[in-house]
Design brief:
The chain has helices at residues 54-71, 91-100, 115-119, 149-162; strands at residues 25-26, 44-49, 76-81, 107-110, 127-131, 137-142. By secondary structure, the chain is α/β, with parallel strands linked by helices. Strand 3, helix 2 and strand 4 (107-110) form a beta-alpha-beta unit.
Length: 164
């Protein structure tokens, strides 16, 4: 049994330089849930977020929107709503958020609130995973501080696109 320092099972199946494993997502608005493989051929930015997270709403979603606006022809972005608090949000709340935040990327709900987030080693919300065009994990980082996490993510996106 693989245990961490706080005696919890280590569930992270994501490793840098390795293929991204398949996710378990559920549709929120009736859209078909894509597979990981459906994004091959184009780099992919995954954002784990939560509708109750101020950093997600105030910085992460606008950042993801900017990436779609500026680099959407070069890379894909997907949002995974993960609810560590197991709080269920209504369809109306998601529809309103899509409108209020002008969400430009597809987003889905994590299975059983946090299954994919735990499997992918998410440190909470927002958490980002950058995958290259071949489905290989290039970067994983928690946070939305523009002078730390988002700045580093910008550099990694630039490197990933340069190598695509």
């Amino acid at each position: 049994m693989n245990l961490s320092f706080d005696n919890r099972l280590l569930l992270n199946e994501v490793s840098l330089g390795e293929p991204l494993p398949e996710w378990q997502l559920e549709s929120i608005m009736g859209d078909e849930v894509p597979t990981v493989a459906s994004f091959r051929g184009k780099p992919l930015l995954i954002m784990f977020y939560n509708m109750g997270c101020p950093g997600c709403l105030g910085r992460a979603i606008p950042y993801a929107n900017r990436i779609v606006y500026e680099k959407g022809d070069q890379m894909a972005v997907i949002g995974i709503h993960s609810g560590y608090s197991s709080r269920k949000f209504s369809l109306e709340k998601f529809e309103q958020a899509k409108k209020d935040f002008h969400i430009r990327f597809p987003f889905f709900s994590d299975f059983n609130y946090d299954t994919t987030a735990l499997r992918f080693g998410s440190g909470g919300t927002p958490h980002w995973i950058l995958v290259d065009k071949n489905g290989i994990v290039q970067y994983s980082i928690f946070g939305s501080d523009p002078n730390n996490a988002l700045l580093r993510l910008d550099y990694m996106i630039g490197e990933t696109l340069l190598n695509s």
